[in-house]
Every structure is written in structure tokens, then in C-alpha cells.
Amino acid sequence: MSDRIEKEIELRAPVSRVWRAVTDYREFGAWFGVALEGPFAPGQEARGRITHPGYEHVVWRATVKEMQPERLFSFTWHPYAVDPNADYATEPTTLIEFRLEPTATGTRLSITESGFDEIPPERRAEALRMNDQGWAQQIINIRDYVAQHP
What we know:
With 150 residues, the protein is of the alpha+beta class.
């Protein structure tokens, strides 16, 4: 089993546009499916309610790590933390990194989630499988969002 999920997509938009879609909390929420309470800030927790049907009971929480303008946005979270009766606070987190690189036709966006080896064994396989599916959908969501909101 892998310790990481890696997704990559070429977006037909300048790096500045993709950066805004990834780091503006309202835009991130629109394509990701979460109603965030406020802006992202390094060292701060970002919170909000998932808006994806069937997951509205989930409070989305992430701790912002780095924001290197137009290059890297990263945060940590508890992967696939969707059971309302579970306390995930003592579990290790995974690291999500959005890396942006200019290309001839726009921006290469790479999304990596790493650290699954540290997730408790009874949750690891499902968290990896569900988040792999989730990131596969999210790269389509951000592609469509950026195309529809130039």
C-alpha cells in the first residue's frame, strides 16, 4: 500500500488564477464543496461544513501550513474523518500539498496527500481509497471551476 496520493492536471489558466482558486477560501469552498468560515492563514485552523450531499454532517477542519504565493499551498487534516461519533483529535494527520507550475498553456497543478502510513491500521486502507477517489474528483472540480470562472 502506498503512503501517498498524487494527482496532476494541466489547467488552461494562468498561475495567478489557479492560485486564487486554491487559496481564496470562498473559491476553494465553491469547487471543493465546503462552506468555510474565513480566510486561510498559515498556522491557523480552517473550518467549515461540507456541502457535498450525504456529508453535510461533517465539519471540515484543516491546519494551514504554508502559503508560498503562486507556488505552494499546504495544510494538514485527518483523512476521511466522516464518522460523527469518532474522535479523530489524537490521530496523526496527513499533509496535502497543492503545487503550481507555469506551463506553455497555463498551469500544472499537482496535489499530493502524504502520511497515510501513520493513520491507524483499522482506518488506513479506507481513508486512502476514499481520498484517492475524492482527489480524482476534486481535480475535475477545480478544472471545471477555473474554466467557468476565468
